[in-house]
Amino acid sequence: MFRMVDLIEKKRDGFTLTNQEIEWMIDGFTKGEIPDYQMSAMAMAILFQGMTHEELGVLTLSMAKSGDQFDLSAIHGIKVDKHSTGGVGDTTTLVLAPLVASLGIPVAKMSGRGLGHTGGTIDKLEAIPGFKVEVSEQDFIDLVNKNKVAIAGQSGNLTPADKKLYALRDVTGTVQSIPLIASSIMSKKIASGADAIVLDVKTGAGAFMKTVEDAQALATEMVAIGNQVGRRTMAVISDMSQPLGVAIGNANEVIEAINTLKGNGPKDLVELCLVLGSQMVYLANGASSLEEARQKLEENLQNGKALEVFKTFIASQGGDASVVDDTSKLPHALYDIDVVADKNGYVTSIVADDLGVAAMMLGAGRATKESQIDLAVGISVLKKVGDKVVTGEPFVRIHSNQEHVEDVMSKVKEAYTIGDEKIYQPLIYKVITSK
Ligand code: URA
Ligand code: CA
Fold first, then answer.
1. Which positions ≥6 away from 231 have C-beta within 8 Å?
2. Is the pTM of this model over 0.90?
3. Which end of the chain is more exposed for a tag (fewer CB within 10 A), N or C?
């Protein structure tokens, strides 16, 4: 039908691929009929030449169709999914799922495990005694219809074309292509069955996109793809130069989520949840404006409704919901070790990556896919950027199951800079909506 070499040359020379060409290419690549070396050359050509919105829409849908697709049509209402490009101590899903559901909006979330210095929602939920992340498709649908919320581990053969392509990109210098990243992320969201999508694109030292400009380019591309393929999509560009909230680590982040749902969350986490949550509620037609959506969410944080939904959600998936009233029932580490300041001043920067790595060294994260994690360990961030510190005052608390943590401590110290200036660190750089 087509010859792959012709398509590579076409893209290399800056021409636009047709829908049929793209569909044929992804289908052939998924089946193993197009060899890795030709697909790698195509990825490089796309990296240099880019793709039109139409090309990207077709590429994304072709990848979404390359494997299993979840059909959530048996769930009543508009299913909005939230996706974060990944960060350190990002507790938003644990808060947002019950919060948005408390307004009657269905949250049917499939989540992953953590890898490297970033955590995964599924691991965090497993810190709750008894909680089951493996749920059959039918039970998942029934739970969402009944409670408006369920979170399950990813199962099945989702977007094999993306899996293969991502592995190739990883070893051919073609990861950093905005069209390829955008289609990769969006293909997975679409295959998971979302009707509408809210994207949290992180920027800063702890993020995949190091600059606001790159984050904005990626967010704009993803919003365009979503709307192109009939899934209403919005995005937020948020800071990941320092960790979000005050807790890193699995049980530690569950406690943080509980505190937030009780109305006592850290300011940055609460704000990001409200901004992302407003978009979710608005896209699901739960409010006629973002402002109205925010007001409703604020109410349910204050009046305890979101917390009640969280309890029901935990109990419905086999977990011990009494942890909400007594967080000492969650796993906790043997030692709490403070890291103290050796001078007076203000925290001027915290490298989120470094704190993420420190938490991973304690056992909170996986160095490889096969690593076992320790749900009890983690890091509490006592001082954030802009906070004042005095000599001898703790700025980080390490929760460890080993008594000696010198290496973790030096990583934590490496993450922090203490200077003379009081710096203001923005949390949200941009909100990207579409008509
Ligand atoms: N995350 C993804 O899922 N895909 C990419 O290409 C990059 C980051
Ligand atoms: Ca956190």
1. 189, 190, 194, 195, 196, 197
2. yes
3. C
